[in-house]
């Protein structure tokens, strides 16, 4: 994509493939699948409405800094439910990310956050570890309880008090236990896989990563945990920071190529969707395009991988009612829906109850619950109502952002329902199976 800024300040999108915008025939099939349209009832907050605005920008009829254009683009969750509903195959996610790439930061605070948080902290494993250590210390040392009891959080600027309430109980101790560089298969090795540990996943859900490695080892995998991983660039792609996303993608490709693994396993849906699209992200880079395509061809979500192999089913019984929330970038980005449900139903004693609108976004959407807090909470209210109606004791999801959001909703409403990643549920069943021996 090239951008042409005209003398009067108007901007034209010059897509490499201009059919991306033209593919939308404005049929309206996407409307009923769009969370913001269902919530706000505004055509401008629907996929076809946003594409129409992009067309106006492309044709130079509105400016790139038009506040109304930015308002409606910012309100989009990028859940990509419209892609699943679209009969014309419109690649809405690519269009949205291209639009966000040309919208300038609204103020100095946003510029600072992008420069420091996105492009420095998330690009550095050392800084990520330092941030995670600080957050775990805050939570586990008693400082969080003291801060919440004091009432000071409610007086913080920039909505920070509300954001602090989103923090889930972080797994593990104050010091995060790192996985060894190689976890050998239990029994004969049938596969060699490399584990994507992630950024948010590694800092908030390190025990889920450990459970992922154990499950893979129990299923005949030698598990390599490559050193030097940082953010995969998903947050940057979704936010329009494409140059830093490409830097991070090249790093990931280099690190994982060295592992000699057959597959690259990821347990965070948003990361997996981006990893599988590195071939698109680096398509215009002649030195990296083929390597990116080869990398993406090896990426597998953990549920996708486990459902495709001869699975060790030495599970113990878990007598519980479970419901499943489809993570947007797992369902709509990677088209994975049946596999997690099949794995859940393999566990003896589980009653899987489908949730109404399980395929609708919970309002987390990367950093949406930070940047669009009010809308995010309205979407969460709708989700919690449907979650409670199932009568489930456990809600399972395949993405850390979903788990954080759903846990927050359960706390707000006093629901006695556990939020759990699929691999934590499977790991629990395996441990119960081993206990019988």
Describe this structure as you would to a colleague.
42% of the residues are buried. The termini are far apart. The chain has 24 helices and 11 strands. It is α/β, with parallel strands linked by helices and 437 residues long. Helix content is 50%, strand content 10%. Helix 3 packs across helix 6 and helix 18 crosses helix 20. The protein has 4 domains: 101 residues, Alpha-helical ferredoxin (Fumarate Reductase Iron-sulfur Protein, Chain B, domain 2, Orthogonal Bundle), CATH 1.10.1060.10; 58 residues, no CATH class; 126 residues, Rossmann fold, CATH 3.40.50; 123 residues, Rossmann fold (3-Layer(aba) Sandwich).
Brief account:
The chain has 437 residues and is of the alpha/beta class. Helix content is 50%, strand content 10%.
């Amino acid at each position: 994509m090239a951008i042409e800024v005209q003398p009067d300040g108007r901007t034209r999108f010059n897509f490499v493939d201009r059919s991306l915008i033209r593919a939308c025939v404005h049929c309206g099939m996407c409307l009923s699948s769009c969370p913001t349209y269902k919530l706000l009832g505004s055509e401008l907050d629907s996929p076809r409405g946003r594409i129409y605005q992009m067309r106006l920008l492309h044709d130079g009829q509105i400016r790139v800094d038009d506040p109304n254009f930015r308002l409606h683009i910012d309100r989009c969750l990028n859940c990509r439910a419209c892609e699943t509903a679209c009969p014309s195959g419109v690649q809405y996610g690519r269009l949205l990310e291209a639009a966000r790439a040309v919208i300038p930061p609204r103020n100095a605070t946003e510029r600072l956050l992008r420069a420091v948080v996105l492009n420095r902290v998330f690009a550095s494993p050392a800084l990520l570890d330092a941030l995670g250590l600080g957050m775990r210390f805050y939570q586990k040392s008693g400082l969080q309880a003291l801060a919440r009891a004091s009432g000071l959080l409610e007086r913080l600027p920039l909505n920070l008090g509300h954001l602090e309430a989103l923090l889930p109980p972080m797994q593990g101790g104050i010091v995060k236990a790192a996985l060894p560089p190689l976890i050998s298969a239990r029994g004969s090795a049938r596969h060699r896989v490399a584990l994507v540990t992630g950024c948010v996943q590694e800092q908030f859900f390190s025990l889920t990563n450990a459970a992922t490695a154990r499950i893979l080892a129990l299923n005949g995998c030698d598990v390599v945990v490559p050193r030097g991983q940082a953010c995969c660039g998903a947050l940057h792609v979704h936010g329009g920071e494409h140059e830093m996303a490409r830097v991070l993608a090249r790093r990931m490709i280099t690190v994982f190529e060295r592992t000699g693994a057959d597959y690259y396993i990821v347990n965070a849906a948003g990361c997996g969707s981006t990893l599988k699209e590195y071939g698109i992200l680096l398509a215009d880079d002649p030195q990296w395009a083929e390597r990116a395509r080869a990398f993406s061809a090896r990426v597998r979500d953990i549920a996708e991988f486990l459902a495709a192999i001869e699975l060790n089913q030495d599970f113990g019984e878990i007598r519980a009612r479970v419901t499943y929330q489809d993570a947007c970038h797992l369902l709509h980005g990677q088209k994975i829906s049946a596999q997690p449900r099949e794995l859940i139903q393999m566990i003896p004693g589980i009653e899987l109850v489908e949730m109404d609108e399980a395929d609708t976004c919970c309002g987390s959407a990367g950093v949406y619950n930070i940047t669009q807090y009010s809308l995010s909470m309205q979407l969460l209210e709708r989700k919690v109502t449907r979650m409670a109606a199932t009568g489930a004791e456990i809600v399972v999801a395949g993405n850390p952002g979903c788990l954080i959001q759903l846990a927050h909703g359960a706390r707000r409403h006093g629901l006695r329902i556990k939020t759990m990643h699929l691999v934590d549920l499977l790991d629990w069943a395996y441990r119960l199976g081993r206990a019988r021996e």
